[in-house]
Amino acid sequence: MLKNILLIIMDSARYDVVAAAKTPNMDQLGTLERRWSYSSWTFPAHHVFLMGLMPHKSPTRIHASNVYRQEYSQWQQRTGIKEINFSDFTPQLSLPLFLQKRGFRNEALVSMPVLNPATNLNQYFHRYLLMEKHNDFSGMIEMIHPVPGQPTFYFLNLGETHYPYSIQGADEEDMPHLHGVHGTLKHFPEPESGEWFSDDQFQSMKQAQQRAVAAIDQYLPVLLHKFKGLPTHVIITADHGELFGEGGCFGHGPIQHPKVFEVPFLEGELPTE
Which of 26, 35, 123, 267 has the maximum number of C-beta atoms within 10 A of its C-beta? Predict the structure, then answer.
């Protein structure tokens, strides 16, 4: 039997922050793992997801080609498709196309403007929507309507964990205002402020991201209830991590630091009874 697939990507959520957050609902889904992103920035990381590759375990003593084959073979269990080979994804290397050919409906709800529908990420989706607000997981949930007998791939990018790490309805005034992420790239290019954050500000940001993770966890039962009785596989991860002053760096993107590649990963099946 084919399964619905819920791929939930908490934008910028680094592993240790997620591990420290209160996430009783995520804990019921599966065991949290520390994995590594293929990219330090949102757009290319999501492109890799849509190739069908999840964050990797950085294994040793194994050829990279075998890692990819093993990863693609896991879609057999995730989807309920009886037999899957790496060649099934070639030459396009597109997870949505692979699923579409097998009767899946593909829906994407994204929070970050850099993932907007004008980009090439929207290929092979029946619905691809940029949310009006960057932190509206509850609004996404209202738009999701699983149909019995219609396996669907839901590709969800959540912005609550992205700077300014704000929960819907919460006050953002305590966070320094950065034009490039408050309305992503609207004012690009912008002058450098020349100011750096204090240790207290970095700690405040880290705590805010942790609260955002906990808030996402609290919304999960509402979302998962919609799939009650339906075969559904859930994956929760992040596109990349975030730096809170480590190595003299903040954020993510053009940064080479282990913490910006370190991400959370968990997956599991919903009960059908």
Answer: 26
Which amino acid makes up residue 272? T
What element of type H or E holds 102? none
Show Cβ contacts of residue 156 under 8 Å, excluding neighbours closer than 6 positions: 6, 7, 8, 9, 108, 109, 110, 137, 140
Asked if the model's pLDDT at residue 102 lies above 60, the reply is: yes
> What are 228's two structure tokens?
């009650």
Counting the structural domains of the chain, the total is: 1
| Pairing verdict, β 33-36 and 262-269 | antiparallel
How far is C-alpha 202 from the chain's CA centre?
A: 23
The CA R_g of the chain, rounded to the nearest whole Å, is 18
Domain that holds residue 60: 4-269
**Number of CB atoms found within 10 A of residue 33's CB:** 15
DSSP states along 173-233: TTSPP-TTTTTTTTT-S---------HHHHHHHHHHHHHHHHHHHHHHHHHHHTTTTS-EE
CATH of the domain at 258: 3.40.720.10
Take residue 17 and report the two structure tokens written for it.
């922050």
Residue closest to 264 by CA, chosen among 64, 6, 28, 10: 10
- Per-residue pLDDT of 173-197, as tens digits, reads 455 555 444 343 343 334 445 578 8
Name residue 90's amino acid: T
- pLDDT value of position 185: 36
Q: What is the pLDDT of residues 40-89, one digit of tens each?
A: 999 999 999 999 999 999 999 989 888 988 999 999 999 999 999 889 99
pLDDT value for 182: 39
* Contact residues for 196 (Cβ-Cβ < 8 A; gap 6+): none
